[in-house]
Design brief:
3 domains; 15 strands; 14% strand
Length: 494
């Protein structure tokens, strides 16, 4: 590959030329969801940002191993009261077993991301599938003096880490004294030597269902430990790119660096990437303020913020108009404008794919096309600049209109080149979908649902209530509700 990709590295605070550990091969890890609730729109923005990065890397010719985890255990918002475990809280609220909560919201996560046309990762490991590896790393950190046991829990010793010339706080640019001064007084702090020490393993209370045997007694892993174990298992002790939301920079990613350096003797990540937050109507989205909307509510129109429903591709197009490191604000006006822009782009693609050349001799367009192609590539190479790429695509939209109106001419070779590039940038790299592919997928879904409804009707006729209920319940878990009436069975998609 003869191009030079630059990535903004959060660790250094600078754009750096990207040099992978292994030529033409990229190892990328992105912190996945904690599956205790519906995936929210801010999460979708983060995962979509890294889907774009993944697509761009593949388009540029890299072979990518993309690992994105599922946190299905041990997500404590702090290292104090184990009753703050999000899975425990939600299981009590919904009166379900914790693993039922995990399954329910893992299905929701995958469904939503598929609707927005996100590519699945190469590997999607779960925290519960890597308990043994987490215990092993905890034991190593203990034996090397970077951790200590306290009352059945194991904590990482931040001060000891710094005493050895390492630098806890290097990613978030915080010094240890400031961190200590600003530490909240939490339950369980008496177990720790230092307020900033973080849990590698937490002792489970008698009521805590999600628990595993360990050398220190029954418990569950620390949230930070999970990502270190899963990233290094599949990508090596050092790998190329680690991505996630800006809110994870401290303490989560800071702790990952400390665990990696202490456990494996080297900095685990070469390029740290952080996607910025999503706001709505100029304010942070929050359930407590009511300024909040779920992805499917934006698609269905079932909300009070937007005048109409919007297709997943329009939403994706809107998101791609902001650079991943910029705050993205959505509003009714922004979505309506995005819809108009998306329609213009799709119309140009349609014309382009149907357009016949109207010149047999070289045209001034030849040079324009060469320059335009380079500018599109340059946008990708400059830290995955999606808004600049989109701006260049609309230059091509103008050209298509001029050719259509016989204001400009184009040869068959030029037309083929433009057609190939536009389709690649729009569908392959940006991940947008035309209305035809969306409607085609909807028809397929409808056909499958009708088949399942027919199978259920047959089961009911044969008095096979077990199969009938299973079909109904499985569809409900996927967000599809069946309604039996006098005229047959209908369905709604939630």
């Amino acid at each position: 590959m003869n191009h030079s990709l630059k990535i903004f590295n959060s660790l250094t605070g600078e754009k750096e030329v990207f040099v992978p550990l292994h030529e033409n091969n990229v190892g990328m890890y992105v912190c996945g969801p904690t599956v205790y609730s519906n995936v929210h729109l801010g999460n979708v923005r983060t995962f979509m940002s890294f889907d774009f990065v993944y697509r761009a890397l593949k388009f540029l010719g890299y072979k990518v191993r993309y690992v994105r985890n599922i946190t299905d255990a041990g997500h404590l918002t702090d290292d104090g009261d184990v009753n703050n475990d999000r899975f425990v809280k939600q299981s009590r609220l919904e009166k379900l077993e914790p693993m039922e909560i995990v399954q329910k919201y893992t299905v929701d996560f995958h469904k939503v991301l598929e609707i927005f046309n996100l590519l699945p990762p190469t590997i999607e490991p779960t925290a519960t599938g890597h308990i043994l590896e987490q215990i092993e790393l905890t034991q190593k950190l203990l034996s090397d003096g970077f951790a200590y046991e306290s009352n059945g829990s194991v904590y990482f010793d931040v001060l000891e880490y710094n005493r050895r010339g390492l630098n806890y706080g290097e990613l978030s640019r915080r010094n240890i004294e400031e961190l200590f001064a600003n530490t909240r007084d939490l339950d369980g702090q008496g177990e720790k030597r230092n307020p900033q020490d973080f849990a590698l393993w937490k002792k489970a209370s008698p009521a805590h269902i999600m628990r595993w045997a360990s050398p220190w007694g029954d418990g569950f892993p620390g949230w930070h430990l999970e990502c270190t174990v899963m990233s290094t298992k599949y990508l090596g002790n050092q790998f190329d790119i680690h991505g996630g939301g800006l809110d994870l920079k401290f303490p989560h990613h800071e702790c990952e660096i400390a665990q990696g350096k202490a456990g494996h003797g080297e900095n685990p990540v070469r390029y740290w990437m952080h996607a910025n937050m999503l706001t709505m109507n100029g304010q942070r989205m929050s359930k407590s303020t009511g300024n909040y909307i779920l992805p499917m509510q934006l698609i269905s129109g079932d909300n009070t913020f937007f005048e109409k429903p919007f297709t997943p591709s329009v939403i994706r197009f809107c998101f791609m108009q902001a650079h991943y490191r910029s705050v993205l604000d959505i509003s009714n006006e922004a979505m309506v404008a995005a819809e108009k822009g998306f329609s213009r782009l799709m119309e140009a693609i349609k014309v382009l794919n149907e357009q016949l050349p109207n010149s047999t001799t070289p045209t001034p367009f030849t040079k324009l096309l060469i320059d335009w192609k380079q500018k599109c590539y340059d946008a990708l190479l400059d830290d995955f600049n999606s808004p600049i790429l989109i701006a260049h695509l609309f230059e091509a939209v103008k050209w298509v209109s001029q050719v259509k109106n016989a204001e400009e001419s184009i040869t068959s070779e030029e037309l083929q080149e433009l057609k190939t590039l536009m389709n690649a940038f729009v569908f392959e790299v940006l991940g947008l979908e035309g209305e035809q592919s969306i409607s085609g997928r909807s028809q397929q879904l409808e056909g499958v649902l009708e088949l399942l409804i027919s199978m259920r009707m047959e089961a009911r006729a044969n008095k096979d209530w077990k199969l009938s209920d299973k079909i109904r319940d499985e569809l409900l878990a996927l967000g599809i509700q069946l309604k039996d009436g006098k005229e047959g069975t209908s369905y709604t998609i939630n």
